[in-house]
Design a protein that fits this description.
The chain has 10 helices and 5 strands. It is an alpha/beta fold. The chain folds into 2 domains: 131 residues; 149 residues, Toll/interleukin-1 receptor homology (TIR) domain (Rossmann fold, 3-Layer(aba) Sandwich), CATH 3.40.50. Strand 1, helix 3 and strand 2 form a beta-alpha-beta unit. It is elongated.
Length: 300
């Protein structure tokens, strides 16, 4: 029997107990009524009561006493049933606790198996990338630029977040002298989206991931995030997460790995403050200790 079935049995036992206790209360009222009637009849008998009236009242008392005896027998039967139901309920409650514990353990094992499979997949992908990088030289893509320009940050975001946050962050970073790969600036009319994104990913030192409800449900953002994770595993690049109008539970459901990293939250920091924090960790700014600290936090 599953925990759900046992839980339904427990609920039915609670209902049965409630019904029995109601019947017991009704019988108690009847018992009190019959006892009162017997007392009233007995009080009505006096020394002036005639023999015929006396006989009638005694028959009346006997009738009430017979009814009272039946009520007492019914109460005893219900009390017995209540005791049995309570014992069965206690046993069922213990059984439910065991079944819930077993189901929790089973769910934990399933979750661990999923996590182990995910880690094995990441390890396999990482090994494949390292092998490819060591054995082959990637061919030059027809859309690839001829220069060796490097970007400080790659901003991975959902298009729905541009107007509210991403555009302003890009502008604030550029005003601070940060070289930003941003699709609106880095992809021209007619150019290949995939090729330009791949090029931007491999040419960027850091990857800023703006996690939002729109981000976690889109395919392109998942493609960018997978690319950042693979580059980070191979080259030690750092992913810097920003939470935008999203809860920790939603991030946890999307990516336990990202949920475990320290992030800047747009609910707590302004765009300017976030840009200032990012500038502090960029190589070449002179803030080596802060850069190392942020990299440790992002990877931990």
């Amino acid at each position: 029997m599953s925990a759900d079935q046992t839980r339904r049995s427990l609920n039915q036992l609670d209902k049965d107990l409630s019904d029995l206790e109601k019947k017991l209360a009704d019988l108690a009222k009847k018992e009190a009524d019959k006892t009162k009637r017997i007392n009233d009849v007995q009080k009505s008998i006096t020394k002036n009561t005639s023999a015929s009236m006396m006989s009638s009242k005694l028959r009346q008392i006997q009738g009430y006493q017979n009814e009272l005896a039946r009520i007492i027998d019914d109460k005893a039967g219900i009390n017995k049933k209540i005791a049995e139901k309570r014992k069965k309920r206690a046993d069922t409650a213990v059984k439910l606790q065991r079944e819930e514990a077993a189901e929790t353990q089973k769910a934990n094992k399933a979750q661990q198996a999923i996590q182990n499979g995910y880690e094995r997949r990441i390890a396999d992908l990482s090994a494949q990338i390292r092998k490819q990088l060591s054995n082959t030289k990637p061919p030059r893509h027809m859309y690839e630029e001829s220069g060796h320009e490097e970007y400080d940050v790659f901003i991975s975001h959902a298009s729905e977040d541009k107007a509210e946050f991403a555009d302003a962050l890009c502008e604030a970073l550029e005003n601070s002298g940060v070289k930003v790969w941003y699709d609106a600036l880095s992809i021209g009319w007619g150019e290949s989206l995939r090729a330009k994104i791949d090029d931007g990913l491999k040419r960027s030192r850091f990857g800023i991931v703006i996690l939002s409800k729109d981000y976690i449900r889109k395919g392109w953002t998942q493609y960018e995030l997978d690319g950042l994770l693979q580059i980070e595993m191979t080259n030690g690049k750092t992913i810097l997460p920003i939470w935008h109008n999203i809860t920790k539970d939603e991030v946890q459901a999307f990516s336990p790995t990202l949920a475990g990293r320290k992030a800047l939250d747009t609910a707590m920091f302004s765009t300017r403050e976030i840009a200032d924090e990012l500038v502090k960790v960029l190589p070449g700014t002179g803030n080596t200790e802060e850069a190392n600290e942020m990299e440790d936090i992002a990877n931990g």
